[in-house]
Every structure is written in structure tokens, then in C-alpha cells.
Amino acid sequence: MKIAVIGASGKSGNLVVARLCDDDHKVTAISRDPARLAGLDPRAQTATGDLTDVPAMTAVLATADRVINLAHARFTEDLLAALPRGSSVVLTGSVRKYTRLVDPAADDVRAGEAAFLGWLKGGGNGVMVHPSMIYGAAGDRNVGRILGVMGRWPRILPMVLPLPGGGRNTVQPVFADDFADAVVAAATATDLLPPTVDIVGPAPIRYSTLVGECARALGRRAFIIPVPVWALVALAKIAGLVGLRLPFTGAEFARGTEDKQFDPAPMIQALGVTPRTFAQGVRDKIARES
Questions:
Q1: Do 21 and 119 share a structural domain?
Q2: Do residues 189 and 271 make contact, with C-beta atoms less than 8 angstroms apart?
Q3: 98 lies in the same domain as 163
């Protein structure tokens, strides 16, 4: 099968491309930056493409049977306009679409999903996957940052971490390899899939548990101090004004107060991918990078 992967040079792209090559598909890896394509699986062909240039992208995708888009959902309408006739598509959204906070990125996901569902009603074929926080890929900016802070913390000092509300909010992160497996399963499915599928971890966990598992995987122990979210948001703003960078932004602290809870059953049943626990995933990440 001829499968084009847009956004192939992103954090999850290399995993998706390698899995497709392992299954003997003819893969074309596409990125806006040709230099970043050099590090991908050499079995894949490469091409340069920009989703904002619909005519050029139409030419790049002309021979593809399936198209996987790992780029942001705000490019959905441009991609749908560039798809070859009769091809099937896997789009990437985000569970941020469920947020109740003011969030332009979530608005982009909702708009992309609406455009996709309208396209399906017009005879299109495909699925939009909505991942939760993806961790485990090289350079991930969530769990990777936590592990980075912990790794730099002097072992002689107690590891004390301030968390909004003490980290009582729930999260449901998904390991990068499980996300890649789900995307590949969606792209190669022969059965009819639901129009959208959430790609999530097996169960919600408290953020304090996530932090504790990170520390445990590093052989450390973290002491969590509850801090009002407004104080952390203010601290992030002040740090920005004086040119300092905290591990997380004020917006990320604010989003962290929302409970995330999703049903993994559609992912398991429709795509055949059972996500691993966070405790296992963070150990797998550390082992991969050690």
C-alpha cells in the first residue's frame, strides 16, 4: 500500500514511518523542512511539502492510497482539498477539544473535526484520532521536561516540586509507541472505523501520581507542595518578563487544573491497541534514552 505521512519529521513521525516500513508499505515521508527528513527510516521515500500550499501538496499526494496527517488540526481543510480522489485519510486532532477553558488551539481542533465530518458526509473516507498528552518520544515537552528537571536536581537535596492544587487533577497520557501503533492501525484498517477515536492511556491518574512515577523510575522520591494555580500562573508571567523560562508556561499550569478522563475502549476495540500504563511507559522511555 502507498502511504504518505505528513509531519513525518515530528516527535511521533519517525515511529509511524518505521512501523509502516516494517510492514512493507511504500512510505513517502513528508515535511516542510527537508533537512529534518534525513533522520527518518531510510526505507521511506521523502518529499518536501507545505499544507498551506494546496496545489503543491496535491502533486505530492497524487499517488497515495492512504494519507496520514500528523500535523496540527488547523491544516485540516487544506489537506482535505489536496487529497487524491478515492484515497483514505487519518487526521490528528487532540483531546483538547473537550476543554472548557478559553483555548485557541482547542478551537482549531474543533474546527478541523467539523470540517472533516462534513467531508465524510460528502463521501470521504477516513478517521480522526484525538490523542491525549503524548509522552515517550525523543524531545517530548511534557514528561520529558519533568524527567529533565528531576535529573538535574542535586541528589543531596530533597526533591521538592510545587504543583497546582497538589496535583489532584487527573490526566490520561498515552505512550508515543502506543499512539504510533494506533495511527498505523487506523491507516491500514480494512473494516469501517468510527469517524473519531480518542487515543489515550488505559485509565486516568492523578498528576501527583505521574510525578511520583517519574521520580520512582529515576530512583528518586519527590515531595509535592500544593500551590494555588494563580500563583504559578503569576510566577510564569513574571519569569517571562525578566527573561527566565520555567519548565511550564502559565497556560499549561491553568490547563493542568482540568480533570482529564477518557474511555480507551474504542481505541482498543476499533484499532486493536491496548495502551500501556504510565508506570510502564515512563520506564520504557528512560530505558530507550539511557
A1: yes
A2: yes
A3: no
Cα gap 169→189, rounded to integer Å: 35
pTM of the model: 0.91
Q: How far apart are CA 256 and CA 170, in angstroms?
A: 9
86 in the same domain as 62: yes
What's the CA gap between 111 and 108, in Å, rounded?
5
CA distance 185 to 231: 43
Per-10-residue mean pLDDT of the chain, 290 residues long, equals 95 95 97 91 95 95 96 95 94 95 92 97 96 92 91 92 88 98 96 96 97 96 86 73 65 71 97 98 94
Helices (H), the chain: 13-22, 54-60, 76-82, 104-121, 143-152, 176-188, 207-217, 229-241, 250-255, 265-271, 278-289
| Unique residue bearing C-alpha cell 518536501 | 48
User: Grid coordinates representing 20?
Assistant: 509502516
By DSSP bridging, strand 174-175 and strand 222-227 are unpaired
Domain around 225: 143-170+205-255
Domain boundary residue, one of 81, 101, 131 = 131
CB crowding 275-288: b at 16 or more within 10 Å, else e: bbebbebbbbbeee
